């Protein structure tokens, strides 16, 4: 396969480095100015607004079903925090200065699922539930949706099954949400999925099917089994527009946060956002929304493990979901379970091609080093995947220079962590601390 893949000449060196597991920074030469692409963008702001409205309709239900959402009135959202001490640590680690201010978007604290999947996964389950309820005359759009929290609705949904393939967190978000609504749920977990994630799901009555193969296979099997059952719905992380829309809502929520915090985004104050990327839906949706809002003043980067740079290879070759990291001799083995995806979403790759500024790859050891640093400096505890964006601000500062970046805002998107059991988190921290000490 590999020999037949054509690599653009300008990226030959990058691909060579990817194949030998070197860290790379890739700047996307396909990126266009917003004015050149805006007419061709197929997903319109109205659709994202529609998704946001749907989440608002469900807010009264979420307050009842998940009381931890009461403090935010049933809206699933996370804080944005400036982390100046972590900025110094990131500079030290990468050995480059960071120009501009550094913030963290704490999706690790998102209620219900403890990860970025609380945006897309939960949204899609709610959308399916609403569609079914509307179609069967159980509800009207202007009703009080706390009605979903009832035996009547649970009985109704118990006739249906929701299935999903996952490396862990998507299964958690979809499993928890679907089970709460009353659906039968089957989660097809890839070999990367952590044991505690499987156990947590089983404790909620979710049927967890384990695979010894990777994520793509778990999705394929789940999709096939679901298609055989007319009362089963498959949530397709590789192809779902609804997931994408759920994630994109996050961009509009971030705009409100930035406004409230008086953080400007304009020509003189560019915004740089660093998003850990697995199959692509989460970072893709958020990046897309930010591009609609901030146009050329938003610079969007994805981060992937050196062992699983699926989206990056898809973008470089233009082959998207037709290639896998295995075609390049990579093993797709990483401690960053949320990013252990060998074949990217074709839907997302094609959308991102003219939008994304670039990508970089990270080593697992770097994830642990940043994990320990963030815990020490800011008392924020993330799972390894969620730290992938943290090398970004220093790498990009070197690439773009002080003149353009001096008033910039960098946001590292922290994509998960609050559900990690304490003993496992302690192990992560100790490992990172050891790695940091070794470099002193
Ligand atoms: C799923 C996940 C991501 C990436 O999202 P994709 O939609 O798979 O690209 C990043 N971080 C964590 C912790 C995740 O669980």
From TrEMBL:
Domain named Tryptophan synthase beta chain-like PALP: residues: 74-400
Enzyme class: lyase
Keywords: Lyase, Pyridoxal phosphate
E.C. numbers: 4.3.1.18
Modified residues (N6-(pyridoxal phosphate)lysine): 117
Coiled coil region boundaries: none
InterPro entries the record matches: D_Ser_am_lyase, Ser/Thr_Dehydratase, TrpB-like_PALP, TrpB-like_PALP_sf
Family according to the record: Belongs to the serine/threonine dehydratase family. DsdA subfamily.
Protein name: Probable D-serine dehydratase
Species per Swiss-Prot/TrEMBL record: Acidilutibacter cellobiosedens
Source organism phylogeny: Bacteria, Bacillati, Bacillota, Tissierellia, Tissierellales
């Amino acid at each position: 396969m590999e020999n037949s893949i054509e690599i653009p000449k300008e990226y030959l060196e990058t691909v060579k480095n990817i194949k030998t597991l070197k860290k790379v920074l890739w700047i996307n030469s396909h990126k266009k100015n917003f004015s050149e692409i805006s007419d061709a963008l197929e997903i319109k702001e109205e659709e994202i607004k529609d998704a946001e409205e749907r989440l608002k309709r469900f807010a009264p239900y979420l307050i009842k079903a998940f009381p931890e959402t009461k403090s935010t009135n049933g809206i699933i959202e996370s804080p944005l925090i400036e982390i100046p001490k972590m900025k110094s640590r990131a500079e030290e680690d990468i050995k480059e200065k960071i120009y501009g201010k550094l913030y963290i978007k704490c999706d690790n604290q998102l209620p219900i699922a403890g990860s970025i999947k609380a945006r897309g996964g939960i949204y899609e389950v709610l959308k399916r539930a609403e569609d079914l309820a509307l179609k069967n005359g159980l509800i009207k759009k202007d009703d009080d949706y706390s009605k979903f929290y009832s035996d009547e609705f649970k009985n109704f949904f118990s006739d249906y099954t929701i299935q999903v393939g996952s490396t862990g967190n998507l299964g958690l978000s979809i499993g928890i949400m679907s089970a709460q609504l009353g659906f039968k749920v089957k989660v097809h977990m890839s070999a990367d999925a952590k044991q505690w994630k499987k156990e947590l799901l089983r404790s909620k009555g979710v049927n967890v099917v384990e695979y010894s193969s990777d994520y793509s296979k778990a999705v394929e099997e789940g999709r096939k089994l679901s298609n055989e059952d007319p009362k089963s719905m498959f949530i397709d992380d590789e192809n779902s527009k609804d997931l994408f829309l759920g994630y994109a809502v996050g961009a509009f929520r971030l705009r409100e946060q930035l406004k409230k915090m008086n953080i400007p985004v304009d020509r003189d104050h560019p915004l740089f956002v660093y998003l850990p990327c697995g199959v692509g839906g989460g970072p893709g949706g958020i990046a897309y929304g930010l591009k609609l809002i901030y146009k050329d003043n938003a610079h969007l980067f994805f981060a992937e493990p050196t062992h699983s740079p699926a989206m990056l290879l898809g973008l470089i070759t233009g082959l998207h979901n037709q290639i896998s990291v295995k075609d390049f001799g990579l093993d797709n083995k990483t401690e960053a379970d949320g990013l252990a995806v060998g074949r990217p979403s074709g839907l997302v790759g094609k959308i991102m091609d003219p939008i994304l500024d670039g990508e970089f790859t990270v080593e697992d050891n770097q994830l642990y080093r940043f994990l320990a640093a963030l815990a020490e400096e800011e008392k924020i505890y993330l799972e390894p995947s969620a730290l992938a964006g943290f090398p970004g601000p220093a790498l990009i500062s070197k690439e773009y220079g002080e003149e353009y970046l001096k008033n910039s805002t960098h946001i590292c998107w922290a994509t998960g962590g609050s559900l990690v059991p304490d003993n496992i988190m302690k192990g992560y921290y100790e490992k990172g601390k050891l790695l940091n000490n070794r470099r002193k």
